[in-house]
Amino acid sequence: MSYIKEKVAYLRGLAEGLGVGSDSTGKLISEIIATLDVMADAVDENEAAIMELDECVDDIYEEIDNIDELLYDEEDDDDDFVEFECPSCGETAYFDKEMLENSEDLICPACNAPIVTDVDSDED
């Protein structure tokens, strides 16, 4: 039982102990206590929902951390690619090391000009 519910229960017991009657003032006090009880229930429900949302946010943060780790691990795998600058347009192009091993000419994806590579130099 929450603190607010305890306080409302105390007020209800106090009203009954004081013999709050069925006159207009007694009815008003009884309705105020009933309204406070409903409000206390709503506060309890909201607190439970907030705690559930907090857990969801924690789970989302964990998932984002996992995604970050995967992304950073993938960035470490960039060693499989070699960067070249196109002599025609100056655009930077990335090619897989396996593409360099083939005898085919590399073509700039920006201007379709051939990119001459020096396969013997180990450029990273």
Describe this structure in words.
The chain has 124 residues and is mainly alpha-helical. The chain has three helices and four strands, in the order H-H-E-E-H-E-E. It has helices spanning 3-17, 24-76, 97-101, and strands at 81-85, 92-96, 106-107, 114-115. The strands form two sheets. Strands 1-2 form a two-stranded antiparallel ribbon. Helix 1 (3-17) runs antiparallel to helix 2 (24-76). It is rod-shaped, with a radius of gyration of 36 Å.
Fold topology:
Layout: H1 3-17, H2 24-76, E1 81-85, E2 92-96, H3 97-101, E3 106-107, E4 114-115
Antiparallel strand pairs: 1-2, 3-4
Helix pairs in contact: 1-2
How many distinct domains? 2
Shape: rod-shaped
Major sheet details: 2 strands, antiparallel
Provide mean pLDDT, rounded. 84
Cα distance spanning the termini: 65 Å
State the secondary-structure class. Answer: mainly alpha
> Could you give the order of strands across the largest sheet?
1-2
Q: Fraction of residues in helices?
A: 55-70%
**If you compute it from the alpha carbons, what radius of gyration comes out, rounded to the nearest whole angstrom?**
36 Å
- How many helices in DSSP terms? 3
Number of E-state strands: 4
Strand content: 5-15%
Oligomer description: single chain
> What pattern of helices and strands is seen along the backbone?
HHEEHEE
Uncertain segments: 120-124
